Amino acid sequence: xxxxxxxxxxxxxxxxxxxLDNYNPSIxxxxxxxxxxxxxDVETAYRAAAKAFPKxxxxxxxxxxxxxxxxxxxxxxxxxxxxxxxxxxNGKPISLAKSVDIPRAASNFxxxxxxxxxxxxxxxxxxxxxxxxxxxxxxIGVVGCISPWNLPLYLFTWKIAPAMAAxxxxxxxxxxxxxxTAFLLGxxxxxxxxxxxxxxxxxxxxxxxxQAIVAHPNIKAISFTGGTKTGAHIASxxxxxFKKLSLELGGKNPNIIFADCDYEKMLATTVRSSFSNQGxxxxxxxxxxxxxxxxxxxxxxxxxxxxxxxxxxxSKSNSDIGALVSKEHLEKIESYIEIAENEGxxxxxxxxxxxxxxxxxGYYFQPTIIEVTDNSCRVNQEEIFGxxxxxxxxxxxxxxxxxxxxxxxxxxxxxxxxxxxxTMQFSKQLQTGIVWVNxxxxxxxxxxxxxxxxxxxxxxGGFEALRFFTEPKxxxxxxxx
Length: 481
Ligand code: TXE
Known about the structure:
By secondary structure, the protein is an alpha/beta fold. It is 41% helix and 22% strand. The chain contains 15 helices and 24 strands. The strands form seven sheets. A seven-stranded mixed β-sheet has the order 14-17-18-13-12-20-21, with helices on both faces. It has a six-stranded mixed β-sheet with strand order 9-8-7-10-11-23, sandwiched between helices. Strands 5-6-24 form a three-stranded antiparallel β-sheet. Helix 12 links the parallel strand 17 and strand 18 (388-394). The longest helix has 25 residues, at 94-118. It starts with a strand and ends with a strand. The mean pLDDT is 98. Ligand TXE binds at residues 146-150, 173, 175-176, 206-207, 210-211, 214, 225-227, 230, 233-234, 248-250, 282, 383, 385.
């Protein structure tokens, strides 16, 4: 199936008719073409957005909210079609797309449809000066949203929904590796009555289409999720242009397990936090740190459970682990197995490519556990972003904290303990934007989401996202005494 750009509510080919192949990773074959949009396509999208902005930004909150709710409703109505499309494009099990990705895309719209009606700003009375200040929260204008391939519609909508709710018009680019569900969203937006030009979707490579969005002089804010290197590059272009930037980047998240935890719950959740979505979630707990007294037991039980995970074609209802997103990504993961072995890491489970009968060209890999003893090794420091975790023991709380923080990343962390004091100490001292205690990926959309250190800048989620997508303006009114 060939997809098109969505500009001014119409589906159009790229101006210079250049296209890229779109792969189905579960069979390793091209199944369609996508536009490789140029600077001119981005300019056309920008103009449509700029034209729509005066009216959309003046549209009542109730009306904006109604349209976004309708989009949410229509997404859920197309749950099966969207889940199948997501799975085909990305390789993830259909069951996962159906239970997580697509429902969450709908929730993103519904959440911000509600949130915008509750969003407010502050007033400050300047006592003694006969003056009152209030803050106007105004939409920025045309904003750019760039999203990755791991949770395609989920992360795409996580950005565009608050942007539009706040009254902005959007030029958005999904990952060129997984563009399909964003394409299908265009039709849904038309059906929901979203005015033309409010959302414009251009497809193409990061280095051409994405770069054109970031460098566009009149696109004044960029919300980006992707690799840390790309984030740094985007910042180098956007910062001198004084653009607002929200960067949600990579992670190397510690999962810290203490002997006093609820063991069975921890074990089941750790399997999930390690291998959900083939380990391709920025929040996956890829460094598992285990208190020494339960290390051997944990290692044995964890390996046993991980060996039970079924790597299979994503359409199979019993597939726990589907295909990796691309051949390049599979090769990257394989290269890290070699790196681990060269560094003295011990592969205690998995480590090999999997051939699925009937789908021999797909990109499948065993869930893999590497035992390491030195936190400075590359597999403990670099983001692998696949079904690969490391295990390592620690003796004391102090040591666990040092190991957990000993990385350039700072996105999320998980701790398993029933000790309240320890919970508080770790919550305060872990250098991550999110700390989960006795759970993982339990998301409340009102909470601030994002990382510190090389995991990014800015926060998304809840009112934080609405603050990002608005410009605060102070108005000071003096009145006679
Ligand atoms: O991401 P990229 P890639 C990590 C993960 C992965 C690595 C590289 O470790 O292995 O990043 O993945 C667009 N200007 N994460 O190469 O390139 C690109 O088209 C503007 C973590 O696939 O960062 C896509 O839409 N845009 C992560 C988006 O950026 C550019 C999720 C992300 O692609 C651009 C994905 C440019 N110069 C990968 N270059 C997470 N945090 O969830 C690329 N893009």
